[in-house]
Design a protein that fits this description.
Acyl-CoA dehydrogenase family protein; AcylCo_DH-like_C; EC 1.-.-.-; FAD
C-alpha cells in the first residue's frame, strides 16, 4: 500500500487530497494499459483521461480563466507514474504542449484548449533540434516573414507525441536579435502543408517520439504566440511551470519501486528468514525512503511556491527536477538489486521502471544543465 501521509503536508488543500484519491481510484481500475502499440495506447489514454475529467488541470479553462495549479499537475503526474509510465506521458504532454497557449495565447488560439482538456486533441511541444537541446538559444530553425504569413523551415527532434499530435507549439528563429532574443513561438496544426514526420525515434522506454521536418511551412502571422522575439521567454515560462512536474513523475516511479521492494523484502526468504531481516537490505530501504521523502518536499515546495503567486520558480523547479530524477534512478537501481534476477527480467515492473526513469534525467533540461541553472540562481 503506497504511503499517502504526504497528502497531509501543509502544501496541500483538501481539494488536492480529494483529487489525488479520485485519480488513484481511477488508476487502480484502468491502469496499466497494453504498451505494444504506443501510438494507439497514447491516443486511448488521452481520450479516457479527458473523458474522466483528469486532463482539466493541463490547460487554461477558457470559461473560467485562472493560473495553472502546479500542485495538482504534480500530484497527477506522481499518481499516474506510480501506476503506468505511459499514462503519465500522455497527461504530461497535454500540459507541456499547450502551456504556451495557456500562458500567452490569444482567445482564438486558446480555442484549442477546450479540445485538449477534453482529450479530443493531442498536443506537442517542439523545441529541441539536432544541434540545440538544452542550449535553446542555439536553434537553427527559421521563421521568415512573408507578407501576412511566416514561413517555417528546419527540423525539430525528440518531439514527444511527434506523429500523433493534432497541434504543435513550435519555436523558431525570427531574428529580432541574436541568440535567445531572436526566437518566437507559433501554433502549428499537424495537418499544415509542409510539416512532415521525418523519422520515428525508438527509445528504451517506448513513447511516441519523432523528428519533424518543416519544409517551408506557411502559417498566418496570427499563429504566433505572444510577441515577436518572445519565444525564449515563453519557453522558459512554460518550463518553469512544468519542470517540477517531471520531478513528480520521477517521484511516482520511485514510490512504486519502494512499494515493490517492501513487498519483495517481506515475502522473499534468504538464509531461512525474510529478506527484510538483513541489515544491508534495511539500509537500502532506509536510503530509498529518505530519497523519496526529500524529493517530495522539494517538488511540492516548488509547486506551492508557484501556486502562491511567485512569478518565477526557476531555482526551486530546477532543484526539484534535478534531485527527484537523479535520486529516483538510485531508488529504482536498489529495487532492481533487491529483486535479483527478477529485477532484470523484461516485463517485470522494476525492470520497466529502470527503463522509464532514465529519460527524465535528460528531457526538459538535463541534470548537468540544472546544476548550472541552480548555480546561476544563487550567485
Amino acid at each position: 500500500m503506497p504511503d499517502r501521509s504526504f497528502l497531509d503536508w501543509p502544501f496541500f488543500e483538501q481539494r488536492h487530497r480529494d483529487w489525488a484519491d479520485k485519480l488513484d481510484t481511477w488508476c487502480a481500475k484502468n491502469l496499466p494499459v497494453d504498451h505494444s502499440d504506443v501510438d494507439a495506447a497514447c491516443r486511448d489514454l488521452v481520450a479516457r483521461l479527458g473523458a474522466a475529467g483528469f486532463l482539466k488541470p493541463t490547460a487554461l479553462d477558457t470559461a473560467n480563466p485562472g493560473p495553472l495549479d502546479v500542485r495538482t499537475l504534480c500530484l497527477t503526474r506522481e499518481t499516474l507514474a506510480r501506476h503506468d509510465g505511459l499514462a503519465d506521458f500522455a497527461f504530461a504532454m497535454q500540459g507541456l504542449g499547450t502551456g504556451a497557449i495557456s500562458l500567452f495565447g490569444t482567445q482564438e488560439q486558446q480555442q484549442w484548449l477546450d479540445k485538449t482538456r477534453a482529450g479530443e486533441a493531442i498536443s506537442a511541444f517542439a523545441l529541441s533540434e539536432p544541434r540545440s537541446g538544452s542550449d535553446v538559444a542555439n536553434m537553427d530553425m527559421s521563421a521568415t516573414r512573408d507578407g501576412a504569413d511566416y514561413v517555417l523551415s528546419g527540423e525539430k527532434t525528440w518531439i514527444s507525441n511527434g506523429g500523433i499530435a493534432d497541434l504543435y507549439t513550435v519555436f523558431a528563429r525570427t531574428g529580432e536579435a541574436p541568440g535567445a532574443k531572436g526566437i518566437s513561438a507559433f501554433l502549428v496544426p499537424a495537418d499544415t502543408p509542409g510539416l512532415e514526420v521525418a523519422e520515428r525515434l525508438d527509445v528504451i522506454a517506448p513513447h511516441p517520439l519523432a523528428r519533424l521536418a518543416f519544409n517551408d511551412v506557411r502559417v498566418p502571422a496570427s499563429a504566433m504566440i505572444g510577441k515577436p522575439g518572445d519565444g525564449f521567454k515563453i519557453a522558459m515560462s512554460v518550463l518553469d511551470v512544468f519542470r517540477s512536474t517531471v520531478g513528480a513523475a520521477a517521484l511516482g516511479f520511485a514510490r512504486r519501486a519502494l512499494d515493490e521492494t517492501l513487498d519483495r523484502a517481506g515475502n522473499r526468504e534468504l538464509f531461512g528468514a525474510p529478506l527484510f531481516d538483513l541489515q544491508m537490505v534495511q539500509g537500502h530501504i532506509a536510503d530509498m525512503a529518505l530519497d523519496v521523502d526529500a524529493a517530495a518536499l522539494l517538488i511540492y515546495r516548488a509547486a506551492w511556491t508557484k501556486d502562491m503567486g511567485a512569478p518565477r520558480v526557476t531555482r526551486e523547479a530546477a532543484m526539484a527536477k534535478l534531485f527527484a530524477t537523479d535520486r529516483a534512478q538510485q531508488v529504482i537501481d536498489k529495487a532492481v538489486q533487491i529483486h535479483g534476477g527478477d529485477g532484470v527480467r523484461r516485463g517485470h515492473i522494476v525492470e520497466s521502471l529502470y527503463r522509464e526513469i532514465r529519460a527524465l534525467r535528460i528531457y526538459e533540461g538535463a541534470s548537468d544543465v540544472q546544476k548550472v541553472v541552480i548555480a546561476r540562481q544563487i550567485k
